[in-house]
Amino acid sequence: MKAVPVLWLTLLSVLATGAQVFMPGPCPKxxxxxxxxxxxxxxxxxxxxxxxxxxxxxxxxxxxxxFQSPGVIAVRNEGLLDDGSVSTITGxxxxxxxxxxxxxxxxxxxxxxxxxxxxxxxxDYDGFSVVYxxxxxxxxxxxxxxxxxxxxxxxxxxxxxxxxxxxSAGVLVDQLISTNQDPExxxxxxx
Length: 191
Hints:
By secondary structure, the chain is an alpha+beta fold. It has helices at about 5-15, 40, 155-170, 185; strands at about 20-25, 45-50, 60-70, 70-80, 85-95, 105-110, 115-125, 130-135, 140-150, 175-180. About 20% of the residues lie in helices and about 40% in strands.
């Protein structure tokens, strides 16, 4: 019987050192932004920090949201890959329950996976956004989290406060990685 917990811990250790952050147990249910206003959330956000995951590579990441149709948000994510090429993926998001508009589901065109949660934990609409996603996998869950800004960087005090928001949701903030948003480096995206 001890083999199963040891096997699970071994698997967790191997997976945690890869490109995903896996945790034991079910997904947590953190509080989300109260009175979320999707219209104020639309526009471009710069990735500042995130948990590592296999589906997002490179630097200079941006997420742009716009109205697609009533109740549906168009999503466009871009980033600069190490080889200098620009990675772009588009999709759509919607609130499954209109009474909880900060709990969105997002799906991407050409990706054969079910929609993923996109929960806005906190935003001031003009400066920062903290987003959390979780999928249950085997006896545990895989966390994804982003700290985004309307500008390429955030003040260190603001960043620390936003990391606190993620930590209170159970996110391993010591696993967050910074996104290079240096204008000179990222300027290659427009070339």
